[in-house]
Structures are given as structure tokens and as C-alpha cells.
Amino acid sequence: MAMSSYEVMCRAIEFRGPDRLPLNLAALGRNDVHHVGWNQIGTGDHQHRETVDEWGCTWARTDMDNMGQVKGHPLADWDAWDHIQWPDPDDPTLYEGMEARFAGSEGKYVATSIFMLLFERMHALHGFEATLIDLYLEPERMAALADRIIEIDLGIIDNIARRFGGRIHGFNFTDDWGTQQNVFVRPEMWDTFFKPRYKRIFDAVHANGWHVWMHSCGKVNGIIESLIDIDLDIIELQQPRALGIEEIGERFRGRICFASLCDIQHTLPFKDADEIRTEAELLLKHWATTVGGFILIDYGAGHAIGVDREKKLVMLDAFLAADPWRR
Q: DSSP states of 212-270 as a string?
């Protein structure tokens, strides 16, 4: 008997031998994951050029349909600390309607999430350049900001767990950590300041029996070891060429589950079907193991990078043809 979506996902994440490649490709109707969100505003209604999220950050967009960028930072000036309206994780309206969002989740791997978990939320509130500078110039204030965000994150996780904990299997979040060349801060800074704080969150998630799934763009090679140390289960990397497919495989294959796809900058927008197939085979060869460790994912805003449905289907077919676990 074929495994359920839930079992395929768990076995791949935990290196226990799935019977096929797990898929998270909602746009193509091939999805082993069912997402159940709470009422976070995120980037807001894309019909509007400007929106304000639940933290008071102002998002601005151009005519190009994408999530936009934070242009209004409510904590740009530290003097605003006493006046900022922090989200209340115990506000019951944040979780209204979640029950209905479980519809269709039977047999699926169910995930919930927080958009912009820690670092991204810090610079959304304080400004990107100011955040990097003040990690050195104002470490006590930055610690207070990080810890305030974490308390809210933990409150949201606790509220979701108390309401639906036994029905959720994974917790995913975004925190982009890299440029095209390296991590935004020195590894020593990351390990001293951020590693113990992420561990607090990861421990809380694991206490609920959920996997931790982190999306992070850029060349984040320098922090993957530290993330493994604090028991990150899945790392979602969408630019495998920037990281180095062979390098990542040599260092981390079999030690963490990868969620990835053909490179969204180098390959999918510009390469033909043969090159997409070659990269799919290369990723599975270097990042997957004989017993799991890889989930095929989608890049949701394909139109923004010039990738249409047909290109995505080519990629899907390439990965399915190279599936190391197909029985």
C-alpha cells in the first residue's frame, strides 16, 4: 500500500525511507503539505500599493506583482519603543477561522507558520542597515528587541498548539540570512546573538511534536552547521547554485532535510529543459540520501521571475524521473 502524504513527508524529514519524493507544489496541484494559517496580515492585500502589517510595518509595492518591501519602520527611532503597538499573541481574533482551514487536510502533512520570524522582523521594525549597525553599537537594545519578538512568537506558537497542536505536524518560517556571497553577519556574531534565541523557538516547537522548517535565501552556508546544532529539521534553499550544490551535499547531506528546487535565479528562468533535468538529477544525487532528506518545493511567485507553469511542469517531471525512492 502506498504511503500517505503525511507518512511520505515524515519519513523524508526523519530519514526513515519514503516510498517516493515528497512534493510541495500547490500551484501544480501536487502537494503533500496542507498549510493552516492564523490571521497574520503578512504583506497585505496586493491590490494596494501600501499596506500595514500587524506589527505596524508599512509595505510598499510597484506595478510588479510581488510581496513588496518594508518602507515604513515603526522602530526606526529607538524613542518610539514606549509607543509601539506590539501584537498581542493572546488575541483570540488572530486564530478565528483556523478550524475551517483544516478542511482537505486528511492524510496530509499539516503545517502552520510565522512570516518573518526573528531577524526579518527585527529589520522590518528597525530598518535593515540600522539593525546591522546596532547589533554592534546598541547590543542591549537589539537584545531587548529580539527577545520581545521571540516572546510574541512563542505566544503565537503556544496559542496554536493549545487549539490545534495534535493536528499539526510542522512549523515553517522565513528569515532570509544571506547575500549572494555570504551571511549578513560574522558567524561569531550569529552564534553569540542569534543561535541561542532560535534555539528557544525551536525547542518550543519541538515540545509540541512539530518539525521546524526554515526558509532562508542567499548564501547561508556559514550558519547551516549552527542550525543543525540546534535541531533544525528542514532548511528551504531556493538558490542551490549560489550555495554550491556539491559543497552543500559534502558538508550536510544526511544531517538535515533539504527543501529545494532548481535554482530560481540561475536555472529556472533561463535554462532549457535539458539543463533543468540535469540540475534536478544533480540536486537529488548530492542532497538526498537513500533514506530521505529532500522535499521538492515550488517558488510561488513564478511570474515575477519569468517562470511559467510549463517550466514548473518540466522541473516536476525531471525530479519525478530521477526520484531515488520511487517503488
A: EEEE--S--HHHHHHHHHTT--EEEES-HHHH-HHHHHHHHTTTSEEEE-S-TTTTTTT
CA distance 126 to 120: 10
Q: pLDDT digits over 192-239, tens only?
A: 999 999 999 999 999 999 999 999 999 999 999 999 999 999 999 999
pTM of the model: 0.97
Identify whether the C-beta of residue 111 lies closer than 8 Å to the C-beta of residue 168.
Answer: yes
Weakest-pLDDT range from 3-17, 39-53, 239-253: 39-53
Q: List C-alpha distances in Å: 87 to 24, 53, 91.
A: 30, 10, 8
**Distance between CA atoms of residues 47 and 55, nearest Å:** 20
Tell me if 189 sits within 8 A of 212, measured CB to CB. no
DSSP run (H or E) holding 277: helix 273-287
pLDDT in tens, 265-303: 999 999 999 999 999 999 999 999 999 999 999 988 777
Q: Are 144 and 90 in contact (CB under 8 A)?
A: no
Closest by CA position to 296, among listed 6, 11, 22, 35: 22
For residue 248, report the phi and psi dihedrals to the nearest 5 degrees.
Answer: -60, -40
In the block, residue with C-alpha cell 547551516: 224
Look at residue 310 and give its three-state secondary structure: helix
Crossing angle (nearest 10°) for helices 139-164 and 128-137 = 120
Domain definitions of the chain by residue range: 5-321
* CATH, range 5-321: 3.20.20.210
Cα angle value 60/66/72 (rounded, 5°)? 20
CA nearest to 217, candidates 261, 273, 256, 255: 261
Look-up of cell digits 483570540: 92
